[in-house]
Amino acid sequence: MCCASKAKYFTNYYTGKYTGLDTLINLQGYYISSSCYPNPYNGFVMTMFYNNGLALHNSCNNSPEDKEDDFLVNLYKGYLKKKVYWLQWGSYVIKDDTIKLQTNVTFGFPYPSGAFIEYSDFKLLPGGRIQLVAEYGRGDDWPYDWKLHPDCNKPSVFFPLETKADSTKCPLLKKKWFWDKASYENQKKK
Question: How many CB atoms are located within 10 Å of the residue 30 CB?
Fold first, then answer.
């Protein structure tokens, strides 16, 4: 199992550096997007970005009309501090007009942390808006690429929050595979 924990599909290595995303979109809250996955049980996804390159990205099993999952909202607000490991954390990079997010999907056994990565692309729109335009996943020891149909054609909706979950509690920050090598070495020295 220890061999499976190498995240060979993860390429958005975390640096912890300021991304400047706050100059393009509002980061003091979360975004709800129509899921690209053609499954009626995954009606929407909730995504929250941080200026240090971290993000939360979770599928919701409610219908899109519900607009939010109360348990997830409380996690995103940071109210359920001991359950922070339940969140799907990842890192993003900004490339041209797209936020490219890679999220660690924690299926549990037999998929340890880093063994399955979900890719989500958000197009930057005028007026500080974003739109989820593509999702797919890849995993170690997974027999096929998990493809999600790019059926998401609506801009994401922003929901402001007064408080956010503490990004320094992200469990991936303890994983060497998650980090850019030089940034990881600098962090260890601190």
Answer: 28
Q: Which domain holds residue 101?
A: 3-9+20-163
- For the beta carbon of residue 106, count every other beta carbon within 10 angstroms: 18
Question: Between the CA of residue 85 and those of 79, 118, 168, 188, 190, what are the distances in Å?
Answer: 13, 17, 12, 22, 24
Tell me whether residue 173 is in a domain: no
CB 11 within 8 A of CB 182: no
Q: pLDDT tens-digit profile of 100-125? A: 999 987 765 445 556 678 889 999 99
Burial 133-156 (b: 16+ CB within 10 A, else e): ebbbbbbbeeeeebebeeebeebb
Q: Is residue 43 part of a domain?
A: yes
**What six digits make up the tokens of 189?**
């020295």
Integer Cα distance of 163 and 90 in angstroms:
19
Task: Please report whether residue 116 resides in a domain.
Answer: yes
Domain count within the chain: 1
The whole-number pLDDT of residue 38 equals 54
Contact indicator for 39, 63 with CB cutoff of 8 Å: no
Question: In this model, does residue 42 exceed pLDDT 80?
Answer: no
Q: Let me know if residue 169 belongs to a domain.
A: no
pLDDT tens string 48-60: 999 999 999 987 7
Q: Which of 178, 162, 30, 164 is nearest to 92 (CA)?
A: 178
